Please model this.
Amino acid sequence: MLTAILGRKVGMTQIFTESGNSIPVTVIEAGPCTVTQIKTVATDGYEAVQIGFGTKKNAKRPELGHLGHNLPQLEAQKKRRQEERAKTRQAARARGESGVAAETDDATEAGDGEAEQATSTARGTAERRRGRTGGGLGPFQVLREVEVKGDDEVTIGQVVDSEIFTVGDFVDVIGTSKGKGFQGVMKRHGFHGGQRTHGQSDRMRAPGSIGAGTTPGRVLKGTRMGGRMGNDQITIKALEVVQADAERNLLVIKGSIPGANGGIVLIRKQKVGY
Amino acid sequence: MSTLVSAVEAAFVRQDLPTLESGDTVRVHAKVVEGSKERIQVFEGIVIAMRGAGLNKAFTVRRLAQNIGVERTFLLNSPRIDKIEVMKHAVTHRKNLYFLRGLTGKAARLKERRR
Model:
C-alpha cells in the first residue's frame, strides 16, 4: 500500500468535536492520484512508486513519453530518417550493386517495421502511424515519488485516493511555504532588534554585531542575516486526521499546513512516533 | 468560499436556533460540565456584538451580575448551546454596542422594537 498521496490545500475552518470543543482544521482535496511509475531494486536500486495528481494542459513530449502517450514523429525526425535512407541508398548505388541494394534496403525496412511492432503494442503503432497523440496517463500537474509499505501489488495506472487514511490517523504534511520576499533578521530569524529608547536611532530592527574584529577578520559562513524568506519545503509532523471521505476526495486535518490555498501538498503516513 | 470547505462546515451549522441581532435581549441555555455532571446554565443579557460568519459566527452577551458587568462570548453553532430564547428586540444604530459598557442604570437601556 502507498504511504502517501498528493492533494491540494483548499482552506481552513473550524469544526466542533463531540465534546463540544471547537478545533482549527485544514480542508484538503486529497487525490485521486494515479500510479505512473514503479521503481524496483532491480532497475533503480530502491523501491518506490511515482504518483501523479491534478491535470495540466501543455505537457512536453518527454513527459508524455514517460506517461506512455503515443507521440507522432516530428517533422525534423521524419526528415532526418529520410535523409539517412537516401544516404544508404546512394552509398549502395556508388558500390555498383543497385539491384541487390534495392532489395536489401526493402528488407531492412521491413525488419525495422517488425521490430517496432514487437516493441510496442499493435494499436500504439497504428495510432502512431496515423499521427495521433494520446493513450497514456495524465498529463498530471505534479509527479511525486512516494514510499510503499506492505506486500500489496501496485500496478501502473492504479488510482489511489484518501482511502489510505482513516480518522484518527496521524499524518505528516509536506508543502511549500508562502514566499515572504526579502525579510530582516527579526522576522526571518527571530532576533530581538535593538533598543527602542535611550537615544537610539535606526537601530530598532538592526541585527547588531555580525562577528568579532581582526580575528577572524571576516564574517563567518552561515551567519544569520536578512534575506529571502519563505517558499521553502516545510514538513509539519503528526497532524490528526479528523475526517476522511474518499468519495469526495476529502481529507480534513487538525491544525495548519504549509502554503497558500490551492497549493500542492504531500500527505504521508506519520513516519515517527508521536 | 470553496465548496469543499462549506461542505465540511455544513454538517456542523445549526438550523434550530433563532436569528440573533445585536441589541436583542436573550436567554442562552449553555451546557456546563462540572466534574462528570453536565447541567444547563442560563445566561440572560443583551447581545452587544456579533462577529464572524457561517460556522464561525459568535456573539457576545452582556449582563449585570450584582452590579458588575459580565460579558460572555458564545460560538453560535456550538453544540454546548442547548437553546437560545430571544426575549426582546431593540432599535440599534450600530452593529457593536460597546458604548453600553460605559453606561449604567437608566442610561443603559435600549429602545424596544416590537415586531
